[in-house]
Amino acid sequence: MSDSSISQRFKILHAFYFRGARVQFWLNQRIRPAGICALIATSIASFLCVGQPKGSIFQIFCYSLGLVILTLLWTLLRRAKISAVIETPKYATVGETLRYSVSLNHSHRWKKRGFRLLQIPPDPRPSLREFSQIEEPGEKSRNAFDRTMIYYRWRWLMTRHSSFLSDETEKSFDLAPHKTTKIPMSLTPQQRGVYILNNLRLLMSDPLGFFQKCKSLNPSPARLIVLPKRYRLPHFEMPGSSNFRIGGEETGNSIGNSGEFIGIREYRPGDSMRQIHWKSWAHTGKPMVKELEDTFYPRYALILDTFPGSPDRMVFEEMVSIASSFIAGLDRHDALLDLMFIADDAHTVTAGRGLERTEKLLEVLAAAHIEPTQRFDALSSSVIQHRDHITSSLLILNGWDEARQDFVRKLREAAVPCVPIIVGNQKPSTPIQGYWIDASHPARDLMHLPQKLAAV
Amino acid sequence: MTHTIHPPPRLILGAALLFWGSMTGRPALGLCLALIIESANWIRFRWNFTDHACSIAWRISLMLSLVAGVLIWLDGDRYTTFPKLLTWIPLLLLPLQFLQSFNFQNHLALNNLSFFSKLRRKRNVELGLAPAVVHFNFGNVYFIATLTASSLGIYSQQKTFFIGLVILTGWLAIARVRTRIFSVITLILIGSLIGWSGEVGMTKLYRWATDRGLGDGLFPSIDPTLNKTSIGSLGDIKQSPQILWRLTPNNAQAPPRLIRSAAYNRYKGINWRNEFPDPTPNADSDFKELTTIDLTENQSFYMLREGMTRQDIKRQLPEFEIRGASGSGEPLPIPGNSSTLQGFQLDGIDINPLGTVRIFPQKSIIQGTVRWRDDSEPEQPPFPKADLSIDEYEFEGIHEVADSIGLKELPTTTAKINRLREFFTTQFEYSRYLTIGRARASQHRPTEIEAFLTTDKRGHCEYFATSATLLLRAAGVPTRYIIGYAVMEKNPRRNEWIIRGTHSHAWTRVWDEQQQRWIDFDPTPGGWLNTEIRQGNQNSRWLADTYQRLKEDFFLWRNQPTHQIGFTWAMWILGLGVILFVTKRLWKSRVAINPTVPLNPLSLTTPRTALHDLEKVAAKSLGTRKPGETLVVWLTKLNLDPSSKSKLEEACTLHQQLRFDPAPSVHDHRGRLKAITQEVIQHLKKPSS
Prior knowledge:
heterodimer, A: alpha/beta, six-stranded mixed sheet, four-stranded antiparallel sheet, 19 strands, about 25% strand, flat, B: alpha+beta, 27 strands, elongated
């Protein structure tokens, strides 16, 4: 849907809210609660000045106005020469508060007082397309005025798009001259992804705490990987059996042997050097190797649909969270796990059995994004290419349109056992093959999955 | 971005409430409120107030505000209801502040104060959306509200108000910002200087603006010392059709045609003022309290003239009952030849030399009887200098007009009055639409009055009255300028005369040398009455009149002594019932907070416990305890059976607890330790041990 097809009402409202949010953000950063109280008191006093022209009213008006002007001037005159370095852990998880620190180096010769720090999240304002197409849950039950102005939709989208919640430092701190001070901070990620933390602001308030100057510190960017949110899953079993798929040492990179020891035999070309039994070679004069029982374990594929589907970006976010939940769930099984998706090219990342830790898969998922075009052919080719190694596959699909139905059909025809998990806002009217997960209530629907997931 | 929620510092709300009590003349109430709020610092229980409780407290506050607003409104006029209501804000918001002070949490949700916001929040929760709650500490709002209410108090004009304001806000700021005390104090001091100088400047500006006729506030009130006329204003004159007074004659005699509110004798610029032979430092000194005579126990008469006796009261004079709203210190409209006043509930009443009667009513609506048509007048005889003076800017023009109509040549005052009446009636036209602008300060000619008399010849009553007053002075007749009301609208069904704002009028009081008394002369052409009567929509006026009548009648009924006692009792019983009900509910749901028991004071000598009694017995088997070896470690060397050993371990624990735990020792612990120690001693003393 192009922007030209969006109605004029949405364009006007979006432009108004978009600019309004900017002004509000600017004011929020510069006026503190005490300042709001002072401004309210001044306004009340000014009204009373008109209605009740008394000396005491004039006094309270002039006094509050005087303090407001003084603090405003004080704030404008504040200066600081400070450099900052953000020190964060590598990983964070959506919804869990992350504590990190910022080292501040104050290069002025005097001690400065009354600072606070604030990490500014990326701009959460929704695009015109999102604003015009995504409806707030229960919006139809709102009154006509709300439905016309759709301000609540805007508020709701702003909340949803918020990358992380970051409070200013609780207490103001002072900075000694030519010293480095470490300030603890915290943030709570709201969405997964790879964050570059570099929008750090130094808040310099006046002594009364009415207003504050907001200075950008431009620290060197700190990279933070926010792993997707994960839901609790019931105990589940994937279809297929590991007996039919040969795993073994060639699939692992762990040092040491696995499997039961059977005996010693003569070396045959192709045997691993690690299997040579040196004592027997010395004893017999021929190269001898240890013979071990081959090990079998399942190998699952988790296929993430990264193609455009629902216009609601949160559906894709929920898909990623669901994929993460399954990765965490499958990690408990003694299995290999392939994460397959398209991001420019077809990617397959394998974890388990000592190859990679599941954090690697979560890290990959943290950076997953929606592709501009649908390329199910490439994805199906990639899956079919690996079908001999795959016990079964889990498809996380963004809706149930014809392209996705064709994709599932192709996999089925290629004898790839697959369990489609279809995520969306509204259950399609056409019968679906797989399990439906409502993007608004994924935790609830995931708990309703059967113990044995059925392949199509 | 969220901010940390700070409650106001300890005791500051109590101090603010005491300040409020002293500024509004309610010290006892202020003290009670302060004790209630600050008792949270000493009472050791709290409540788990939910959002629902917050909503209820808010509703109670709204309900109290509504009731208080209605009562205040019934007691006064619509202009002062809101400011008066604001002075009660600390009491009205007490439920919410109580909830904040005694709640476990230090914040309230702002959504609870709005019905629609609460609904939205509930809806969001049901739909699984973020509720978007804004939390705040109500104590900060309460603090600001208390200071605002204090500024409207009756004693807020004293210097103590501003000092208190600065101290309280400075206290709040210093308590909040602990690290930058010097900067905070500097800002507060500079701010207070701005506040003080700003108040002086704004007061002067306000006076200048009102003197220039740019505005007189919003409220119609009559200043007995200064009358700012509409002379020089342009456009239509707007007057309220609201009923101000109601006159009911007590006999067949109709009330006077003119009743006056105030008299002035000095015209300068566009304003009329008072000028007396012996100037006083302030206007209040010009007023003299009226004497009273008690004819019977409940019949007290205010005497408007000096030297009146009981005989004067007993004379048969026409009288009428007057009823209406009046502010404190406002003039009472009475006829120019009034004799006595009776039946008014007043805190004070006085009169100035020009006969302006000022009253200080006990209630906002007053009712009383006026006896009139006396032989002489309340005001003093003419002051030659003031009552004949013409301002220098008006002098030439007035004398020219007086000469042109031959006023000076006429022999008697009556003839001069008649000539003037004829002059105005034949050549002038009454108009509410004013077209004569202000004369610029640098161009005094022609003045507004001169323009009226020579060129425009149309204007409203102030032009006629001022012109007549000055022209008669030019002809050597002492005159005064009078403002008041024309009594011209009768309600025959109720046999009462109604005085509205549109009946406001101005005329001239002329000294009749022959009769040696003051007489009223209304120079305005008679057609003005018809112009006033045509004003406004009759239906809406009827509704407004009925509503006002009901309000006044109810007010007077309620304030009758017997009804007032009943009403007060009913309010007390209702209030106490509500308080008892709320207290009972609160008492049941209280939760004790963890008692913070006072710690044992730091002592350089460790206390001796019962375990030390064991030392002497144990020394017999263990030998003397080494220096530095603790008693507990030393006693563990005792060779005891398992049961005694466990008892000794328990005794050692109690011993350590009693000696080193900063929490106060429990009496049971001492008893228990003593008992165990005795058992161990008995065991050690046994021959088998």
